[in-house]
Every structure is written in C-alpha cells, then in structure tokens.
Amino acid sequence: MKAVAPSETAEAFAERQAKALRVHAQLCAEYGAPFRFFSTKDPLSELMSALLSHRTKNADSHRAYQELRATFADWDTVRDAPTEAVQHAIRACTWPEQKAPRLQAVLREVSNRCDGGPCGDLRFLGAMTIPEARTWLETLPGVGPKTSAATLLFSDLRRPAMPVDSHHHRVAQRLGLIGPKVDEKAAHVLLADLLPPGWDAQQVYDHHEALMFHGQKCCFYQAPACARCVVLAECPFGQARLGPAN
Ligand code: SF4
C-alpha cells in the first residue's frame, strides 16, 4: 500500500513519483551510475558494520570494524567477550562505550532467536519478503529502518531495500519529494513508495547513492550550490533561494 498522505491527491502523489524518477535519471547521469557496491559482507557482518557506522565518519567506522574482526575470531566470540574488550577494539568509532554493549545485545538476541545456537550469518533473511526481513531486523535492539535496509541492500544478499541517510533525506526534502517535517524514519516509507515496485537492488542502490552523492557534492547542509545544480528545475527550495530570475 502506497504512503499517500491523507491530504494528498492521487494526482499529487503521481507527480511526486514522476519527479523522483526524473531526479533519479538526472543524478544517476551526473554521478556516473550504475554505482559499484562497496561491500561484499555477509548480512550479519553488514549489520554489525552498520551499527558501528552510526554518526561516525566512514574511515573511523571502517577502522573500528577492521580491528573488531582482527581481535575476535567470529561473532560468537564478540558476543561472549568482556564488553570492555569489545569497546577497546571499536574505540576508533564514536561512542564505543554505547556501541559495544549494543553489538553484544544484538548478537545475544540473534542467538536467542536461533534457539541459542551459533549466530549464523543471517543468510535466511534472503528467503523472506523484504517487509518480513525488515521487521525481523528492526525488532533487534537499536536497529532502525536505515540499518535494516543497509543490512539487506549492502550485504551480499543484495535485496532492494532502500536506506535513507542524512544527505539523502536533506536532498529529498529540498526537492519536495517529502515534506519539510518528515523525519528520517518516516522518510524510509515515503521515499521507498515513490520507486517502481519492480526495481532491482542495483536500481535501488543507484537511487540512494545518487541522492547521497548529491548531498555530499552539491546540496550541502549549509550553502547548497544551487546555481550549478543539475536538478534546480525540479527544486522549489533552490529556486526560492536563487530568486525569481532563476
Ligand atoms: S537546487 Fe539547491 S537545494 Fe535544490 S537540490 Fe539543488 S543544490 Fe539542493
């Protein structure tokens, strides 16, 4: 079921969908899609990596992940290790004192759901529907829609679930693909509903990456470069900033 706001007509929803596809085409061309997947992790490793990456620079969360893997033999060992040892291994990321117990809580819950056996690698999520897999993940402690989508899309499962990070969210708001008060969590449903249901993982990945790159390279949080933006014609925020001459 599509997430049409109560006040939105079917025509307005169709126009948002059409705009999303025009923006997709323009930004994919601008940034050189198709984009190469950056990860080949199994889904459990991708989940751990995503939890480490919360509000952390990529380079720092990568270092934390690498050290965690180098320190412990497998995820079961991480689960059962002294929390201080896990915290030390991930010290390169932000808030290791919060993330270490979080990782272990998630690993314990995964084990509980697997009848207390070894954690496995969550590959069984590939046999579920995407809503089922996302619900399974989002009922783990501290796992929200961005992490569940990242686990399904970025891991070697390659399922077409779309994460929305802060860049993607900001660009979508400014373009009017979602309202100005829609938060990141709600944006996951509203933005996914704009995509054709038959899109594969590469297309969903390209959409996410293209909007994210645009936020990183042009639509900056402060002082977006609207005058050189390839989607200015689609963007009420940019047009208002630049004034009537544009
Ligand atoms: S016109 Fe400006 S605000 Fe709009 S998407 Fe482009 S850079 Fe962002």
Automatic annotation (TrEMBL):
Gene3D superfamilies found in the cross-reference section: Helix-hairpin-Helix base-excision DNA repair enzymes (C-terminal), Hypothetical protein, domain 2
Protein's name in the database: Endonuclease-3
EC class of the enzyme, as a word: lyase
This protein's UniProt keywords: Endonuclease, Hydrolase, Lyase, Nuclease
Coiled coil: none
EC id: 4.2.99.18
Record GO terms (molecular function): class I DNA-(apurinic or apyrimidinic site) endonuclease activity
Pfam families membership: HhH-GPD
Family annotation (InterPro entries): DNA_glycosylase, HhH-GPD_domain, HhH_base_excis_C
Phylogenetic placement of the source organism: Bacteria, Pseudomonadati, Bacteroidota, Cytophagia, Cytophagales
HhH-GPD domain location: 52-217
